[in-house]
Design goal:
InterPro entries: C5-Methyltransferase, C5_DNA_meth_AS, C5_MeTfrase, C5_meth_CS, SAM-dependent_MTases_sf. Helix content is about 30%, strand content about 15%. The chain has helices at about 5-10, 15-25, 50-55, 60-65, 80-90, 100-110, 160-175, 195-205, 235-240, 255-260, 280-285, 300-305, 355-360, 375-385, 385-405, 415-425; strands spanning about 1-5, 30, 40, 70-75, 90-100, 115-120, 135-140, 175-185, 205-210, 215, 225-235, 340, 340-345, 430-435, 440-445, 455.
Length: about 475
């Protein structure tokens, strides 16, 4: 299996200059593929851990993993459903999802009308009716500032953060396993004190934390250079009997060509869709940038004028005037494809990536529809966990739950009435949303009609809650 110099750099987390020097100096035998691209054969790179894992992968074997029974799950901070969809594809049965953003909730409801989605502030949800009825809880909590009242930092020191709300849900539900995902920067946030506080909080909750891993999406059939920190914790009464195994990678790195054309993950070309456009002045600048290039490929006078004050800072800034390459994975998607500091220009056409191209890079299926204004759609997709990454982790979690069933068999719980109770309580709330802080205040515990736009009532569920909602 061939890997280019640039893609090996993405795989190993180093620069293309370094991997090119490996070729030049003969550190590893190099070769040229049929397109004239220089790189390496993967079997010649077995002393590089990431390459070795891809060569010796168990992807096909793990792809066949299926749940031995229904495993109930709850997801918090669900967004547009990247993580939830991946977990569902792996075999989890979602009984409840929570998300604050209205457009994202509409996306979830549009695509999975049988999912029970609570739109609103997680702080107002009482999860106790689901105690010991749910097998798995997951959520990608936003990383807020943590307070450190205690010297060690634990559960009480996370109060006021959304991690605290996830931890509270764990405390109230007592799932067998829970998972948190976040940006890899959480590991070093505040000189490591944030992750230390989270670890201590997990221990106080009565769970054993699997050593956290930063997973590179490009290793899991995702055509995007995106890294996520994954934390998985197993309830103490179970942890000593089982062992979690991280997912095996796919055999090769997928590129934008795999995202936009028929191949491994899609059987047709990317559908036409709405998308952002460049002003004429910016378009003329971007037309000068080759595939895989950036501001450094512009004539000096053009670059100087385009970059403005950033020109004086020198070096780096490779996101500016950046055109992607069809033979490489995309850079990490952001909430907009045309921000000046994080440009994501189409490899061949001089325009920002379209909404559906964004979705394909995040490995959403083409039938998954995003609701809201175009800017809402970009934001939802940019903030999502890549579906195929979530699916790979989900399969490893299903394998863990199958192992738990072998040593500690239990029957799946019926969560219908518990979910009904939770959602009816939410139906009675009248809340005022603050979109800036992503929080809300309860105005009344009795539902009432209101004419003001900023008063949001939870959609009436009542007898419409399905008796047994399926994926």
């Amino acid at each position: 299996m061939f890997i280019s110099i640039n893609n090996l750099a993405a795989l190993t987390g180093t620069s293309a200059a370094v991997t090119a020097s490996w070729s030049r100096r003969g550190v590893y035998p190099s070769c040229v593929d049929s397109n004239g691209v220089r790189g390496f054969e993967m079997h010649d790179l077995l002393d590089i851990p990431e390459a070795k894992a891809m060569v010796e992968n168990r992807w096909s074997e793990e792809f066949e993993v299926a749940p031995v029974r229904q495993f109930n799950s709850v997801e918090l901070f669900a967004g547009a459903g990247g993580l939830a969809l991946g977990m569902a594809k792996a075999g989890f049965h979602h009984v409840l999802l929570n998300e604050f953003d209205t457009s994202a909730c509409n996306t979830l409801r549009k695509n999975r009308p049988d999912w029970n989605v609570i739109e609103g502030d997680v702080r107002h949800i009482d999860f106790t009716p689901l105690r010991r009825k749910v097998d798995f809880l997951s959520g990608g909590f936003p990383c807020q500032a943590f307070s450190y009242a205690g010297k060690q930092g634990g559960f009480s020191d996370t109060r006021g953060t959304l991690f605290f709300e996830l931890a509270r849900a764990v405390k109230e539900i007592q799932p067998k396993v829970f998972m948190c995902e976040n940006v890899k920067g959480l590991v070093s946030h505040d000189d490591g004190r944030t992750i230390a506080t989270i670890k201590n909080a997990i221990a106080e909750l009565g769970y054993t934390l699997v050593e956290p891993h930063v997973l590179k999406a490009i290793m899991y059939q995702v055509p995007q250079k995106r890294e996520r920190l994954i934390l998985i914790a197993i309830r103490n009464d179970i942890a000593q009997h089982v062992e979690f195994h991280w997912p095996s990678p796919y055999e090769r790195i997928l590129t934008l060509r795999d995202a936009f054309f028929p191949g491994v993950i899609y059987d047709c070309e990317v559908p036409q869709s709405e998308g952002a456009t460049y002003p004429e002045k910016k378009k003329k600048v971007m037309e000068l940038v080759p595939q895989g290039g950036d501001w450094r490929n512009l004539p000096e006078e053009v670059a100087r004028k385009y970059m403005g004050g950033s020109w004086l800072l020198g070096g780096g800034k490779t996101g500016m005037a950046r055109r992607l390459s069809m033979s490489e994975p995309s850079l990490t998607l952001t909430c907009s494809p045309s921000q000046k500091q994080t440009e994501r220009c189409h490899p061949v056409e001089t325009r920002p990536l379209s909404v559906r191209e964004y979705a394909r890079i995040q490995t959403f299926p083409d039938e998954w529809q995003f609701m809201g204004a175009m800017s809402d759609k970009y934001k939802q997709i940019g903030n999502a966990v890549p579906v195929n990454l979530a699916w790979a982790v989900g399969r490893s979690l299903i394998r863990l739950f199958n192992d738990i069933e072998t040593v500690m068999p239990t029957a799946a719980s019926d969560c219908t009435e518990a979910v009904r109770e939770i959602m009816l309580k939410q139906q009675s709330l009248v809340v005022k949303k603050n979109k800036v802080t992503q929080t809300s205040e309860v105005q009344s515990n009795l539902r009432q009609l209101n004419l003001f736009d900023d008063i949001v009532t939870v959609k009436k569920i009542g007898n419409d809650i399905p008796v047994d909602s399926k994926l």
